[in-house]
Each structure stands twice: as C-alpha cells, then as structure tokens.
Amino acid sequence: MSVKDCGHHHDERKKMVRRLIMAVAALIILLAMVVFLVWAILQPHKPTFILQDVTLYNFTTTTAPPYILTTVTQLTISSKNPNGRIGIYYQKLDVYVTYREQQITAATLLPYSYQGHHDVAVWSPLVFGNAVPVSPYLQQVLSQDLNFGSMLIEVKIEGRVKWKVGTWVSGRTGCVSCPAYLRFGNPTGGLPTMGPVVKLQLFQRCHVETTLGS
C-alpha cells in the first residue's frame, strides 16, 4: 500500500469521526429542544405552600446568662401541586423554625412523597429546640416580644423538589419561607416563659423559591 493510500484512509477515518461527533451533538441539541418545548408548552408552576397552624407546647428561656431557649413546636403545612400535567417529587425536605434570623430548632426531615396533578399534601411535623444558646440581644428582644404578647417567627423548608413530565424528571433545589405572626392574647408581663399549650390558626401563604439542582 502506498503512502498516498494510507493518507487517504486516515482522512476518511477523520471524516467519519467528525461526522459521528456532529451527529451526537445534533441529537443532544434536538433532545434539549424537545425538552424545552415540552417544558414551555406545559408551563410548570411552583408548588403552593401554606402554613395552616402552629402549636407551641413549650417556649421557655432562662432569665440569666448564659441564655438558653427551649422549644417544642408542631406545625401543620400543606402543599398543592397547581400543575395539570406535571407531577412533583419532594425529597430530603428539612423543616425548622427561625426567630430574628437565628435558627431556634433542629431540622426535622419530612417524609419523601410524590404529588400528582392538582394533589394536596399535608405534613404535621414536630420540631424541637433543645437548650439552644441565644445572644443577650436576642434574649432582650424576645422578652420584649413576649411582653407585648406577640412575636414573629419564620418556618423554613429546604430540600430537593423534582418535576415529572412523563418519564422525564427535572431536579431543583427548593427553599420555602413561611412568616408566622403569633399573637398570644394576654401579654406575659415580660416573663420569658410561655405555656403550657398555645395553638394558633394561621393559613399563611409561604414564599417558594427554586434553583437548578441535581
């Protein structure tokens, strides 16, 4: 075989490899366009979360440093899938409570679940804050809030949310924020202790954010 023939075969192989790469790239682009078109036509919407009620079984702080906060809270949270053709998976959702942007309970893992078209899911988790250290400033503000008989907490849910269209599933990271303005009726006279049980009906709509994830 001549040098010319070898060069010819080498060029043919290069052309075949180039064509194969172009075909694979075209297929990937085509699939991406199909997914985008399906996504645009179906117009997926984020789930709607509502904080229905908050039950405080314990909300106690120490009166002298080091300041410690202990809480036992039950939450009732509902979620609705507003989509008519898209299902939603909830995975690794952690719920916890914050006060003045400080986390005051440990995170509680919600059950994994799948939500069909227009379905509603309801969770009633218990969240615990066992001897959580708080700063002197936060202790002072908390005492003032209890003295006025009201306080603002925030229920947060973080985890993974996935949309299902047919056999295709997209992954996103979700963050839900539910502000809850709690009124206790009778002020506590400045005492940083409340109990034994306070149940508050709220039906507060939550703010939902999602970002691209795995």
UniProtKB/TrEMBL annotation:
GO terms for biological process: defense response to other organism. Residues 76-172 form the Late embryogenesis abundant protein LEA-2 subgroup domain. GO terms for cellular component: plasma membrane; plasmodesma. The chain crosses the membrane at residues 20-42. It is a single-pass membrane protein. Keywords: Membrane, Transmembrane, Transmembrane helix. It holds the Pfam family LEA_2. It comes from the Eukaryota. It is found in: Membrane. PANTHER family: LATE EMBRYOGENESIS ABUNDANT (LEA) HYDROXYPROLINE-RICH GLYCOPROTEIN FAMILY, OS05G0367900 PROTEIN. This is Late embryogenesis abundant protein LEA-2 subgroup domain-containing protein.
